[in-house]
C-alpha cells in the first residue's frame, strides 16, 4: 500500500511539472511567472502578439498574450548602427518550469503596415468577429518558433524579436526587459519583404467567429 501511494505521489508531481512547463495559467507557480518583452526592428507596427506551445491546437482566445508595441508613442531605443528599434514589456501569466528543456512556440500577431488606413473610416465599420480579413491597414501573421537560450532557474523573460524580413526569433532572458538581438543577426534580416508581403506566413483573421474582447486586441 505504501509503495502504491509513493507511485501515485510521483505521478502527481510529474503531472504538476508538465503543467508548469506547458503553460498552465496560475499566479502561484513555484517557478514564478514569465514576463514577456517585444522588440520590433521592422518598418511596420506590431499589434497584439499571442503565443502558445506548438504541441497544442492554437486558439487565439485561449492563448497567452505577449502584448504589443505602442502604435503612437513607442519606446524607442538606439542600435549600434544608428537605427532604432521599438520595445515593450508586460507581465504575463505563463507558468514556467525554469531549467526545463526549451519548447517550440506558435506565435500569432498583427502587423500594422498602414496606420492612417488602420485608423481610418473603413476601420470604423470593421467587425473583427464577422470578417475573415484583418482590419484595414493590417495583416495577421503566424510563425512556429523554437525558444533559444540556455535553460536556467534565473531566466524569467520570453523575448519576442520581430525582424524586418518577417522573421521572428524568441529568446530566453533574465530580468524584466532582456536584451535585443545581436546587431549582426538584425542586419542579416534587414531587407524588407517584397511589396504586399508583411510577414512570411500570412493567415486569415483568427478572431472571426469570436466575440470575446481581449487586452491589446
Please give a structural write-up:
With 217 residues, the chain is α+β, with helices and mostly antiparallel strands. The chain has one domain (2-203). Helix content is 16%, strand content 33%. It has 4 helices and 10 strands. Strands 1, 2, 3, 4, 5, 6, 7, 8, 9 and 10 form a 10-stranded mixed beta sheet that branches. The longest helix is centred in the first third of the chain and has 20 residues, at 2-21. It is globular. It starts with a helix and ends in a 14-residue tail after the last strand.
In a few lines, what is going on in this structure?
16% of the residues lie in helices and 33% in strands. It is α+β, with helices and mostly antiparallel strands.
Annotate the secondary structure layout.
Layout: H1 2-21, E1 33-40, E2 45-53, E3 64-67, E4 75-78, E5 84-95, E6 104-112, H2 115-118, H3 121-124, E7 138-148, E8 157-162, E9 168-173, H4 183-188, E10 202-203
Parallel strand pairs: 1-8, 7-9
Antiparallel strand pairs: 1-5, 2-3, 2-6, 4-5, 6-7, 7-10, 8-9
